[in-house]
Amino acid sequence: MHPLCFFSFKRGKKSIKREVIDMKRKTVMGILFILAGIVIFTVRINEFNFSTLLHRYWPAVIILIGILILFSGEGKGIKMSHDDIQSDDYIDYMNIFSSLTTLNESSKFKGGAVTTVFGAAEIDLRPATIDPERCELSLTAMFGGVEIRLPENCNVIISGIPIFGGWENKKLPTKDPSLPVVRIKCFVAFGGIEIS
User: Fold this and answer.
1) pLDDT for the residue numbered 96
2) Could you tell me which residue ranges the LiaF transmembrane domain spans (predicted)?
């Protein structure tokens, strides 16, 4: 779990109770971002420097983030952390200053995307059944980490771009070419990805 927890976006099914909790968190976080932006903006307006507009208007970005959080679409609820069991065939997670821990029990897992920025994601796919036709995962770790645990009965092919970071494949190789293949594309900048 990452020590800095602000928010993470998760697209998928939710229970009504979780939706209510997410709505409350979303409202609180949105209001906090708007208030922080307004306070910083008011202080900055008195120090206005005509030499650069960016210097004056950067707090407006914080206000916009707050507004976007409040009015984000269905399925993009804010969570302080995410711990649950999923059965989705596709996953799509984005963590910013947050952590995510999930277990997927899909009967035909086809892949998806996981992005962390100053955060951490731990995705356990060991109970899932990999789709034999095609399974692709796109993993992005920027100043954070992603850990993916794959089932034993699959092969893995990894490619990607590391920039001051990298990935490590700890998954034991299988000698059976008929097993499903998980293709993983990694982008790492100042972070790490671990596949096991």
Assistant:
1) 81
2) 28-76
The pLDDT tens digits of the residues spanning 87-135 come to 888 988 888 877 888 898 989 999 999 988 888 889 999 999 899 899 9
* Rounded Cα gap, residues 156 and 128, in angstroms: 15
Helix (H, G, I), strand (E, B) or coil at 101: strand
Q: Which residue has the tokens 């507004």?
A: 67
Q: Which helix (H) or strand (E) holds 89?
A: none
Task: List the strands of the sheet with 7-10, edge to edge.
Answer: 77-79, 7-10, 90-96, 111-117, 136-142, 181-189, 155-163
Is this structure's pTM higher than 0.85?
A: no
Helices 16-46, 53-70: axis angle to 10 degrees equals: 160
The torsion angles phi and psi of 42, rounded to 5 degrees, stand at: -65, -40
How many angstroms separate the CA atoms of 123 and 8, rounded? 14
Q: Determine what percent of the chain falls in helix, strand and coil, rounding each to the nearest 5.
A: 25, 40, 35
Which amino acid type is present at position 121? A
Measured CA to CA, the distance from residue 109 to residue 155 in angstroms comes to 14
Q: What tokens were used for 99? A: 């952590």
pLDDT in tens, 3-46: 444 444 444 444 445 555 565 666 667 777 777 777 677 666 66
